[in-house]
Amino acid sequence: MKAHEIDYHIYGEEMQYVEIELDPQEIVVAESGSFMMMENGIQMQTIFGDGSREQQGIFDKLLSAGKRVLTGESLFMTAYINQEYGKKKAYFASPYPGKIVPIDLTKYGGKFICQKDSFLCAAKGVSIGIEFSKKLGRGLFGGEGFIMQKLEGDGMAFVHSGGTLARRELAAGEVLKVDTGCIVGFTKDVDYDIEFIGGIKNSIFGGEGLFFATLRGPGIVYVQSLPFSRLADRIIASAPRNGGNSREEGSLLGGLGRMIDGDNRF
Q1: What's the pLDDT tens digit per position in 40-96?
Q2: Contact criterion met (CB below 8 Å) for 148 and 116
Q3: CA-to-CA distance for 63 and 69, rounded, in angstroms?
Q4: Are 52 and 79 in contact (CB under 8 A)?
Q5: To bridge 65 with a disulfide, which of 48, 127, 132, 229 should be the other Cys (CB 3.0-4.6 Å)?
Q6: Residue 10 three-state SS
Q7: Helix H or strand E segment including 176
Q8: Whole-angstrom Cα distance, residue 37 to residue 57?
């Protein structure tokens, strides 16, 4: 199925959102929780899977939805349909500080592989499936497990990253070594594997884990500076425990600061 040809504009710097312009009867499919707002005349419809195929039996629909469960996503997605005669706009926001990456699948050979929680929205007709790792090491230690998401088709898709985004275009045979959690996605020709950091001191005291990802060109790689898991770990580590103070609030100045700014919790 040929994907719908949608127009878009991305707004913001660190907390971005994407504006999708829909012609009459055009549809954009979005992940649950990414919706921000929409103009009157757009109808929301909950669907199984990604709705990339018009004619599907109940078994095919269940299979499509079941694949999404393997990537940790909901069984359902939401389709936004322009039911009016003029152009209408729908808006979708990234769930945490970072960048929204527009992916034109026609420029990437019809396929893009990304981490399983990075998909935001796409034109109807884009297939959102799963990509199984063919290498044991990658599956066990890659941070993304055996399964990643794959976006296939000839339309526009949008993924989000945390922090600042880096785009690298690798030549044939060129290797980039990346923290496993920092990978956003890469084109289909990039070879992805896991490499042991090596060295007892590096492994025990390095603080960067035991493995990093090796990405071998040719192809394009997107890397994020702040994976959500890293952000969550820092927040949890700094959160008050057992009714006590947070890490930065253990001194007299910490308590004085709370009194000054009005945060007098007892």
Answers
A1: 999 999 887 666 665 455 555 555 555 555 555 566 789 999 999 999 999 999 888
A2: yes
A3: 10
A4: no
A5: 48
A6: strand
A7: strand 175-178
A8: 32
14 contacts 98 by C-beta, under 8 angstroms: yes
Distance, CA of 136 to CA of 185 (rounded, Å):
20
DSSP designation for 155: S
Do the beta carbons of residue 14 and residue 73 sit within 8 Å?
Answer: no
- ∠ at Cα 79 (77, 83), nearest 5°? 165
Q: Residue 128 in contact with residue 156, Cβ under 8 Å?
A: no
- Across 108-130, b (16+ Cβ under 10 Å) vs e yields beebbbbbbbbbbbbbbbbbbbb
Mean pLDDT of the chain: 78
Question: Among 32, 28, 30, 10, which residue's Cα sits nearest to residue 19?
Answer: 10
Confidence of residue 3 (pLDDT cuts 50, 70, 90): confident
Q: Which two tokens stand for residue 22?
A: 């829909």
Token pair 């580590």: residue: 237
The single-letter DSSP state of residue 261 is: T
